[in-house]
Amino acid sequence: MKHLAGLMAVLFVLSGPAQALVVKPGSLKRVVLKAPSEVRAGQPFSVLVELYDAHDNLITDYAQRGRDLEVLATGSAKLSSRLLRKEAFVAGKATLGVLDERAERLVITVRELGGTSVLASAQVRVLPAVLQGFQLLGPSEVRAGEGLSSSSGPWTPTETSLGRA
Predict the structure, then answer these.
(1) Residues 6+ apart with CB under 8 A from 26
(2) What separation in angstroms does the CA of 129 have from each of 28, 42, 106, 125, 160?
(3) CA–CA dist 73, 90 (Å, integer)
(4) What pLDDT sits at residue 123?
(5) Is 27 exposed, middle or buried (CB count within 10 Å of its CB: 0-12, 13-18, 19+)?
(6) Distance between CA 26 and CA 12 in Å, rounded?
(7) Considering 24, 83, 87, 111, which has the largest number of Cβ atoms within 10 A of its Cβ?
(8) Which domains, ranges and CATH numbers included, belong to the chain?
(9) Predicted TM-score (pTM) of this structure
(10) Average pLDDT for runs of 10 along the chain of length 165
């Protein structure tokens, strides 16, 4: 009977004057994190956070009816914010800034504030930074024909910067 009433309502709308029907997205079912798979240590990057309902509709009105989201990161990564306020979502999307200065495997997770279940996670491989320079330890002078040893004199650091080829 419920289906018949719905069909009658549809027929009534179809037989009456034409009106636009606005279909709004449902409640939050899925979070998608779009992050690079690899970054260099020390280089900031962004993660795009997208919110979808059960029918894969982007939730464009999340700022009006959603809840704040908590963002966590493993390792030494620094996040622009550990809290994504619902107002940060414009047309169902928000951007999160990330900086990790160590070469490591980074996992970013999102969950509803106060919730326990993870809504989404993304893995990013943080590669070592490009070599900027190195330090050589050795004596400040040696005699020709003599090997290098601790008796060659005091070992002093020598700073060397790498130039671009």
Answers:
(1) 53, 54, 55, 57, 59
(2) 38, 7, 15, 12, 17
(3) 23
(4) 97
(5) exposed
(6) 25
(7) 111
(8) 23-127 (2.60.40.10)
(9) 0.70
(10) 43 64 90 97 97 95 93 95 96 96 96 86 94 72 72 52 51
